[in-house]
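Hey, resending since the last one bounced:
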Amino acid sequence: MAHFVFVHGINVRGDDAELTRNLIAQRLRNWLPQAQVHACVWGDDLGARLRHGGASIPNYDSARGPGELLPEMQSWLRWQLLYDDPLLEVRLLAAGESQDAVTPQSAQGARLMLSRLAALPQSGALTQLLATLGWQALLAPTLASLQQPGGELLDCLGACSCDPAALSSAVAASVSAQLARNAATAGLPPLQQQERAQLHNLIEQELGGTARGAGAWLMAPFLGLGRQLSTRYLERRRGALSDLACPVMGDIIVYQSRGAPIRQRIADTVRRISAAAERPVFLLAHSLGGIACVDTLLLQPELRPHVRQLFTVGSQAGFFYETGALTGLEPEQHLPPDFPPWTNFYDEADMLSYLIAPLLGHDGADVRINSGQPFPSSHSAYWTSETLWRTIAAKAAS
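The structure tokens again:
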């Protein structure tokens, strides 16, 4: 029986670590049915806290513009905007109509769309997909929030007499984005790009669309307004981005200045689980947890026989090593010969993930994950990646 010790990363507090541990166990057992997953939790008592209510953090403005919108970023921008404002595409369609009042055509289209929305819970295919994703409990509250009496969706539908295919695509995007928001609130990880596309296409078909690219027509405004929209998005999100930056910087600063207690907790957890299992464990670490695990194994060589393999996910260990910030290893040094085999997972869309193989050569291996999620969602989207679990299972069985 394989035993995995999960070490969380930055900004994990309360029940977050246990929710992620449960998800990891569920996904891992699809490949290794007998695997056991144990959590090493350090954020609540050893992580950063704003002890004076954030009095040290001023408001900030972006010193650099968002730049030109690259083609591969169009989908990221679209969904990041939809996550922030699920009704954006429906509103764009309604804004493009010339009439100000409800017409018989738009009223008929609105009634038809509302009836199809109401019928979504009866869709067997959608119910099955949501159950597979673990989102089956989210559909009813999602539809209720979108269809509130006097709400904006009803107003937009009443003003829209556009192409039914475009409307179906836009409303499906609204439902998909609101589902994603509700999932995040419930502590569930974001979907992979393919899962998100499958969900959107299925909802679009249930709403009378074709799922054959009607949404591509609606993407045209994003190409022309990409810079303007992304600027407005950053302006609206300055407070949220500050909240994100604070725990990210705080946990890293705390670790760099007072990291010994975090490393000791990892070592104690590994020894305890390894002794109980009577075998070495697999270390699975996310983000800053990966840095802490690498340092722990470097600074406590007696711990290495207790770790069979190290898996880091969305980690900054490579960047810390290259910049001389890794506590246990200088940039000119190599890993010790008895360091456990190390596999590092990264996503090019995750601005907090870095490589190790170009620095450590055969001592480390990088595996690319493509979640299709924009940052920062991409930083927590690894756990739903089939590539990640297939790789871990293969290496654990070797």
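The CA atoms of residues 89 and 170 lie 5 Å apart.

Sorry for the duplicate.
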